[in-house]
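re: ur question from the group chat, yeah i did fold both. here u go
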Amino acid sequence: MTERYNALIIGAGIGGLTAAARLLEEGMRVLVLEADPHPGGTAYAYHRKGFDFPMGPLGFSSPDLVRDTLIKVGIDEPLELERVYYELSAFGLRAPLSLPYAEMITRLAVLFPDEEAGISRFFSHMREISALQDRLAKEGVSRSRKAESVSAAGYLDRLIGDWRLRRILGSMGSREPYSGITLLAAMWSLLCDRGIHYPSGGIRGLSDTLAASLGWEAPVLGAGGSAADEHLLNPGGPGSLWLRTEAVEILVEKGMAAGAFLADGTRLEADAVISNADFKATFLRLLPRDAVPDEVYRAVAEARQTASNLQVCLGLDESRADLSAYRDASRIIYRRDGGEVPPREGGPDWDAPEIDPEALAGEELEATLLSADDPALAPEGRAVLVIRVAAPFRHFARFRPRRKRRIPGYFAYKKSLADALVGEASGFIPGLQDAVLYMDVATPLTFEERGGRSGGAVAGWSWEYLEGSDQEVVELIRTPIPRLYMAGYQAYSTLALGGVPSAMLSGLKAAEYLLEGADPVSGMPIPGGTRD
């Protein structure tokens, strides 16, 4: 007789784990499938040569929402958080990026005295717009409400004269403004109002806490033997977590989600399914084609996502590098000084077979001294530095003849790119190259295959502004397929809470919809997709 579950959850990311914890609170029988040997998806860490490196997020905002969600799923352990700070090093200046609004106005006015009035107006507008969005969200994000549709670039052209300040305010960095004004306001709210926080025990600790309800016992990173070696966790309990177990198809019977198939042909049956896989994986790969309405399939296929990253994780000898640049902030957004000329937009020729490593090094870099926030990541006298730069998936796709395989030259090529980034970062971290004890490099291929993110997208749906488009607060949890719900950071569109809080909230909502037997929706307003 086939075993049957009340709920089958595909993917043990933050959203899937939150959903599982909520359902277990109601006494439901839950099975979570995870292809990786650990829970949490990219909200985790991995161990190399004595150092612990991040797989994905380096912090999160909306800490009160995270705490409230944990309580709602039955977890009352205290969540200890430290606020982290960002600075910009570009255009020959250092500027704060994450101080409270009043301090941002004061500090930026010192750097740009002729723009003080515009700076004050800008942050006043940011506060007003984000407050409006918060109010709409509290009314219920399922009510798709149109928000102000204005490009940040156009808005700042009218408000600010100095091109450097337009870039700082429009991108929270050195790039040309690229989003709409509503999303820009939400992002400034995350940085300056709510703040970005790092939890005690790291992002991995949050995943471990959520997974504990499924029998997960968090191993010490780098230690041999752990619950990660078990295929079935918590056997016989109401909730189970199967690691190294990939769902290859969602079972649909009589038009309703009814379970899943595993790679070995195993059929798992359930009353309902929550997919914590991303939307492209769920609707283009996991669901049978005839189960997905044409307009939804087309919208998901055409929807644009954010770019991916090239990530360089470094284990350092602190005594060999001057880390004083991180005195006031653990995260630095850096771009080499181009003098009085705005940096050329467009970057490297990503359509070329290989790009010039020095061209990549001239792009905007995010360099995070993560061990300053979490000393436990490195042994005493050592440090962990994470350098990230935007990189498109399409450029690296040619190096992969098939999944988890690479053509000759790939490893040497990605190392040449990483070496150029380390050399560039040496401009503000003297001695960095001599301090490197270990280097690990991840490309967009890594983020797709090991992170479960289609196209390696690091932040879900595209944030770029499209002329004539409407920014909307959209919930994407219920689907047109009865008894199929979505969880994860893509399940809310433009509700810029940040990735981890969005994923948790989506998991909570997915579980609640499942519990109440919520009806399917007739369509899904996928951001950037075709809408008939």
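okk and heres the other one u asked abt
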Amino acid sequence: MSRYSGGARRILLSLACLALAGACAPRPSYDPGGQCELNTECSARLVCRLGRCRVECREMRDCAVGLECVRDRDGLGACQLPEETSCALASECPDFLVCRFGRCTNACERDVDCPPGARCQPDDAGMLGCRDVADTECQLNSDCAAPYICTPDRRCREQCRTDRDCRDGTRCDTASAPTVCVVPAPANDAGTERDAGTAMDAGDDGGPDASTDAGEDGGTMAPIGPGPPSMGGGFGHTCAARAPDDLRCWGLNTEGQIGDGTTSPAPSPFRHALSGVTMASGGAAHTCAVSASGLACWGANEQGQLGIGAAGARRTSPASVGGLPSAPTDLALGANHTCAIASDRLFCWGDDRSGQLGGGAVSATPVPSPREVALPAAPVQVSAFGGHTCARVRDGRVYCWGENADGQVGSGTIGADIPTPTEVPEARGASHVAAGTTHTCAIVGADVLCWGNNNLGQLGDGTMGPSRGRPMPTMPLGAAALQIALGSTHSCARTAAQVFCWGDNFSGQTGSPTGGATGWRVLEPAAVSGLGATDEVVGGSNHSCARTGASVSCWGSNTDGQLGSAGADTHVPRAVSWP
């Protein structure tokens, strides 16, 4: 055993370097992600872990959003991109990652394609990949890579004037001096704060949503995706929360789904008295919203989809839902069932004739109160539209269950219903999942994957034909998808600059003026004319809507006034007329 401690040896080594007057190389400049074997090969405040210079961590909260705290065999933690491993060939990486910088990482074309906390950079061969270079500890501005500055909290961050100046997953903190981009507080700690650009939000983050902490065990966390819905589209009605105290619904009202106390048609948006609204969603003929008073639902209830303890008569005004441990953080309505995430647990209720409640068995008996769904990890997102349900869990895996006549569960089979949550392995690492009536799509890395019914080209791969039980990528959008929204037989995806739709266009719901080569069907993603950057997109049965700030535009079928304005069907987005 040496007579000197580790600290003494380092002091002697430093004195030896000084004595040799330059024989020892200086510490390298700030270079997170650089290859290393020893801590001394990394800049100050970085450590050598898994062969790279990284930010040291003890818990997930020590890392930038989009990075995870991973421990080596000695139990020492460092921040890295999810699934990051050493590689020499692309085949050594999971399907949704590529080999760049000698490691598996996300493919990208621009910074917006990367998780927050990473930048899109070329490797030695000029191939682009995501590399973690931001949100690192610092003492001086020179410790930070341009264009970052060292802020009072001793982190490297971007300067900004508004949220639009910030990359995905961050917001402009105008209360700081100087104003810089910061990671928003997690949803459970932030009250009603969300990531879309209305008065209830701090601004659109372009896609990645508030992250979900995986706890203090250094485990993985789900890729961040869009926030809970402020809009919902049903069979023939639409609802949108323009602000916390301005929830409005319009369109078909035969079951009281507008919530105005009647069953009369409602072509003009009806303003609800609910305050502090944080999310809203529509089913076939029912609607639910989360407000300061908790979760409330209204409309059809023959299958117990309102969650009020009994199935039967419809409700034409909001009725409180009990039995949840807390206010929901996400909400999804199917044709005749409802699901909500509360306290990191998933609950579903209503129609269970296809096993869409995830209880492990198909039942003709309605479930009129919230019942917990067993999942292998905490859910961060839930989606439903027809008779099936999908959930995205904390580590990015996707599970689906329920009606599967067209392979919409993604299990590889087509036919029998699947009442137990079943993983869709091709969708691992998903940042968003969306269910349509008989098809499903997910965002995985830079790709949109779809599966299920394809009779009208709603899977977006350029074909129209048999249903598919396994996910396949759509034709490229030309930019990273941030959110997807499905209708009965059409699909839409939102990027940072445009909205793309495909599938059934009989009523103009894809926003295409001609419907492509097949007339009224669009077989691959096509940009919706007249729309630029938007904060949210939603699909109804045969119509679509998009929100930008407090403005909402809709297109497609207007048979029941679901576009919120007078007139016939339209393929051109038309602004909703607010009374």
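fwiw on the second one: The first strand starts at residue 46 and ends at 49. Helices lie at 6-19. idk if thats what u expected
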